[in-house]
Amino acid sequence: MKLIVFRLCFVYPLANEVCYETIGCFSDKPPWSGIPGRQLFGLPASPEKMNISFSLFTKETGNLSQKILYNEISSLQNYSFSPLRKTRFVIHGYTSTGKYGWVVELCLLLVDVEDINCFVVDWEDGAKCTYFIAGSNIRVLGAVIAKFIITMMKIYRYCPSNVHLIGHSLGAHTAGEAGRRLQYVRKKSPGIGRISGLDPAAIGFEGFPKMVRLDPSDAGFVDIIHSNGARFPLGLGMFNATGDMDFYPNGGKFMVGCNDLFLLLEIGSVGNCHHSRSYEYYKYSILYPSGFLAYPCKSYKSFQAGNCFPCPTKRCPVMGHYADQSHDKLKKSNQNYYLNTGYKEPFTSWRYNISVKLNGMKNVKGEIYIVFHNKNGDMKEYPIMRGSLKQEQIYSKLTDVEINPENASRIEFVWHKQFFTFFWAQLGAEKVNLTRGQDGRETSFCGHGTVKYEVPQMLTSC
Predict the structure, then answer these.
(1) Dist CA 53 CA 127 (whole Å)
(2) Are residues 15 and 43 in contact, defined by beta-carbon separation less than 8 angstroms?
(3) What is the Cα–Cα distance from 429 to 446, expressed in whole angstroms?
C-alpha cells in the first residue's frame, strides 16, 4: 500500500478573510464554509505556500518544459509561448503533482498532435494537505490561473475563448473557479472557451451552489467524464450532471478492468483506479476518437438494453478531447451520454449489433461466438447465443467490441458444444450481419459450409 505523507499546511483558525497581492481576498463565509457538508472547508493558503508553478510545453521545447512561477507570469514573453496558438492548461487533483505523471504525459501528447501552448499546473504543496484544506486551496489556485490568463490578454490581446482548462478531481473545480472569475473581467470579453472536468471531486461539491463547483456557466463549453460517481466511500467523483455534455462510461460509477473498489491510503487521503480512469480515457481519446463514441440516452440501463442504438440522425459525440466538435451540431445543453469502454489500454470500444444465421444440424445444444483478430495478433471472442441452436435461425446480440471490425484482419465464427451434444455435430454461419452503432450501416459476411465444435470458420464479405 502506497503511503501518502501530508505536508504541514497553513490554516487560519480565527480569521474570516485573507487577502493576497494581485489575486484579492477570500472569505470563509457561506457558501465557501459554515454550511452543512462544508464545515471543514476554511481559508485557502497563499500562492507562496502552495508553491504554484506552470510548466510550458510547445513544439519548441520538445520533451522538456519551461517553468514559470506564479509570480513570474508577467515575463511570459521571455518563453516559447505563442499568442497565435490555442492554449491548454492541465490541472492535477488531490495528493497529486504536476512535476511528472499523467499531466506531463498529456501535455506532451497534446503538443505532439497539435500546435498549441500546453501548461501543466503544479500545486503539489497545496494538494498534499488534508482533503478539506486542499479543497479550500483551489480557490487561490483558480484565482492564480485566472490572473495568468488575464496577463495573456493584457500582453498579447489574447482571447480567452482560445483557452481550454483540463482538470481532474479537485482540478476540475479549480478550472471552474478560474472560469467563473474570467466571466467578470470585461463585459465585452468572452470567457474561457472550454473546460473539461475529469471526474470532478464529489465531497463538498456535489449538490452545492454553483459558485463553489464546476458548472456549465464557467466556460463556453463544459464537458465532463464521470468515472467514479458512486456513493462515498466507494465513489470519489460527482455523479450528477454538471456540464453541457456529461459522459458516463460504463455507467459512470465503476470502471471495467479496475480491481480495487476502494483504496483508503490514509485518513483524509483517497484514491482509486476508477477515479483515475477519467484522465486515462481522455488521453487515449486523443489518439483513438472513434473508439469513444457515446450515445444520448435516458439512463445507463436503457443504453445497456439497446434502446438508444444506433445513433440518432444528428450523430453521437465522442467522449474526451474531441467532444467539442459535436457541441454546435447537437445544440443541446445538459445532455447525458453513455458508452462502454475496453478493459485495458487503450480502452477503446465499438458498439455493434451482431446477428448470425446458422447452418448445419437442426437442433444442437451449444454456444456460438464471433471472433475478431487484429493486425497485431490480438483476438477477442464475443458470445452471441447459448442454449438450443437451430438451423436457419437468426441470433442477435448488441455487443461492445474492443477490436474495430472495420480494421479487423480476420473475422471468424466458432461454436462450443454443451454436454450430451454429439461429438460429430457441425454448425456454420451462413450469414453474419454487423450493424454499426455510429450510423446503422450494415456489413455482411458469409461462411462456407459447417465446422466441428471449437474449429474456427473463416468469414468473408458476401
Answers:
(1) 13
(2) yes
(3) 7
For helices 273-287 and 102-113, angle between their N-to-C axes, nearest 10 degrees: 10
**In the predicted model, what is the mean pLDDT of residues 144-149?**
97
Task: Point out the domain boundary residue: 306, 339, 372.
Answer: 339
- 18 close to 44: Cβ distance less than 8 angstroms: yes
Q: What residues form the annotated binding site for Ca(2+)?
A: 213, 215, 218
Q: Would residue 390 count as lying in a domain?
A: yes
Residue 307, SS3?
coil
Is residue 410 in a domain? yes
Catalytic residue status for 169: yes
Give the pLDDT confidence of 8-38 residue by residue, as tens digits. Answer: 565 555 568 999 999 999 999 999 998 999 9
Residue 311, all three cell numbers = 445513433
Q: How far apart are CA 288 and CA 117, in angstroms?
A: 22
Which of 275, 276, 321, 324 is catalytic? The answer is: 275
143 plus 29 within the same structural domain: yes
Kindly compute the dihedral angle of the four CA atoms of residues 369, 370, 372, 377, in this order, to the nearest 10 degrees.
40
In this structure, the answer to whether residues 122 and 204 fall within a common structural domain is yes
pLDDT-derived band at 425 (thresholds 50, 70, 90) equals: confident
Amino acid of residue 451: V
Cell representation of residue 224:
465532463
- Mean residue pLDDT of the chain comes to 90
DSSP annotation of 204 reads T
CB burial of residue 196 (10 Å; 0-12, 13-18, 19+)? buried
CATH of the domain at 217: 3.40.50.1820
| pLDDT reported for residue 363 | 80
Q: Which helix (H) or strand (E) holds 282?
A: helix 273-287
Which domain range does residue 433 map to? 351-461
Catalytic residue among 28, 122, 125, 199: 199
- Which of these is catalytic: 55, 136, 169, 278? 169
Residue 42: name the closest of 23, 21, 15 by CA: 15
In a domain, 4, yes or no: no
Element (H, E) at 136: helix 131-156
Catalytic annotation on 324?
no
